[in-house]
Amino acid sequence: LNYYQNGTQRIGWHSDREEIGRSTPIASISLGCTRKFLIRSKTDGVRDRASIEMTNGSIILMENICQYKYLHSVPKESDVEEGRINLTFRCKEFESSDNAAGELATTEGELNHQKRDHWITQISTKMGALDSTAGSWKAGGARIADNYDGGDDDDDDLEAKVFG
């Protein structure tokens, strides 16, 4: 949980701890005022840059590979006077104590992750790298959706299902 009282508060360029799990994503939900979420490559800081407006209720899902390839930040914004809450969710993988090889146990949770990964792969092949009309961006394992209206039309369900 992070609370940004106003635009003077920020978090600098960083990547999250990818050792938490080998295949687990990090989900981040933004509540409150709109703030910029910046992404850039670790290699030179110039390639694969993105600036995403995280509005109230926006969700970003960063696959583990995103932490290896990219840095992200929330910059200062002097014109922002309202607060923002960021909720971050991570899945932790556990090793079985009776597994002498130290490999991950095949649990119901791990099977669910495999199903999710397969489903996300199918969905993401249908998503473009950048679709500004749908409010989605995808590169290096990050996906964002901010326009789900719950309808049965095709304008936003694809992005929302990634997070459902």
Structural class: alpha+beta
Strand order of the largest sheet: 1-8-3-6-11-10-9
Considering DSSP H and I runs of 4 or more, what fraction of the residues is helical? 10-25%
Query: What is the second-level CATH architecture?
Result: Sandwich
Largest sheet: 7 strands, antiparallel
Q: How large is the count of helical segments? A: 3
Number of domains: 1
Can you tell me about this structure?
With 164 residues, this protein is α+β, with helices and mostly antiparallel strands. The model is unreliable at 97-103, 127-141 and 145-164 (pLDDT under 50). The protein has a single domain (2-95, 107-147), classed as Jelly Rolls. Helices cover 19% and strands 32% of the residues. It contains three helices and eleven strands. The strands form two sheets. A seven-stranded antiparallel β-sheet has the order 1-8-3-6-11-10-9. It comes from Skeletonema marinoi. This is Fe2OG dioxygenase domain-containing protein. Residues 149-158 have a biased composition (Acidic residues). Residues 143-164 are annotated as: Disordered.
